[in-house]
Amino acid sequence: NSNSTHWIVRQRRNMAGREVVLIYGGRGALGAACVTFFAAKNYRVVSVDLVANEEADCNVVLSAVLSWQDQSRKVQDALDSFLSADKLRAVLCVAGGWAGGNIAADDVIANTDLMWKQSVWTSLVAAQVASKFLAPDGLFCTCGAAPALAGTPTMIGYGMAKAAVHQLVRSLAAPGSGLSPEATAIAILPSTLDTPNNRKFMPAADMSTWTPLDVVAQLFLTWATEPKDKKPASGSLVAITTEAGRTSTSIIGA
User: Fold this and answer.
1) DSSP code at position 156
2) Most buried in the list 27, 41, 93, 183, measured by CB within 10 Å?
3) CA dist., res. 170 & res. 191, Å (int)
4) Cβ distance 172 to 223 under 8 Å?
5) Beta strand pairing call for 44-49 and 58-61
6) In this structure, what is the dihedral angle of CA atoms 71, 36, 188, 216, given to the nearest 10 degrees?
7) Residue 111 vs residues 76, 90, 210: alpha-carbon distances, Å
8) Do 69 and 124 form a contact (C-beta atoms < 8 A)?
9) Can you give the three-state secondary structure of 118-147, one letter per residue?
10) How many CB atoms lie within 10 A of CB 138?
């Protein structure tokens, strides 16, 4: 499949001077919403995913058969060509997935492998990209999960993977991590997001407690552009909750 080994640049006029964000997982529900949101705010958008997002200025189309190292190399090669001397304002890793299963499940190894690839591989590649291409005061954000702050007996692989993401973010915030000391590295721990799939599979749920995707995208924009002393401290795990249609954030740890 030729689509598995290429990257695509959609040229637009007036490229110069427009800041750039990278959305890792740019064809998922939250990722696609972020691509649309940032493009509407006049950002150049790089989407990384297994399929292209036609709204992005640059698509890095990966293949699931590529090794972890090769996926990272491909993203970096594409950015070398696309960015030239520019830097990324934000690297937002919103790739991920969910699988259940306790330790006695026959598919616990397979499911854990999938969770690792969807959450840990993606977050680490995005973080390595941030170390090389993020503006010195830029934002790195990935997706953790509140259940992974404790035991997850019925979803072993998911909990392990998300706990690893939390560990990555805390490491990136510490001195000597390889990320710019002026950068901010955080993880969001969202409650239920208002996605088409969630509406399909949970039609009777109380959707007033679901967080709209545009609200999350606006949080990303705010954190990417406000001064460092106004945003969550680097290393923070930021819970996002919605009640009665109103969304709030709280810091779980820094």
Assistant:
1) H
2) 93
3) 21
4) no
5) parallel
6) -170
7) 28, 30, 26
8) no
9) HHHHHHHHHHHHHHHHEEEEEEEEEECCHH
10) 22
| Cα separation, 126 vs 32, whole angstroms | 17
Per the model's pLDDT, the better-predicted residue between 195 and 13 turns out to be: 195
In tens, the pLDDT along 184-223 reads 999 999 988 888 888 898 999 888 899 999 999 999 999 9
Hey, what are 5's tokens?
């080994």
- Flag the least confident range among 37-41, 109-113, 127-131, 228-232: 228-232
Rounded to 10°, the helix 122-133/68-83 angle is 30
Structure tokens at 204: 């009777």
Could you tell me the pLDDT band of residue 16, with boundaries at 50, 70 and 90?
A: low
Q: Which DSSP category does 84 fall into?
A: T
Residue 158 is a catalytic residue:
yes
Global pTM reads 0.93
**Residue 103 DSSP symbol:** T
Helix axes 29-40, 213-225, angle to 10 degrees: 50
Amino acid at 120: V
Report whether 45 contacts 27 (CB < 8 A). Answer: no
Q: Tell me how long the chain is.
A: 254
Choice among 158, 210, 220, 223 that is catalytic = 158
Name the DSSP class of 179: S
Q: Which two tokens stand for residue 203?
A: 């039609």
Instruction: Give the per-residue pLDDT at 197.
Output: 86
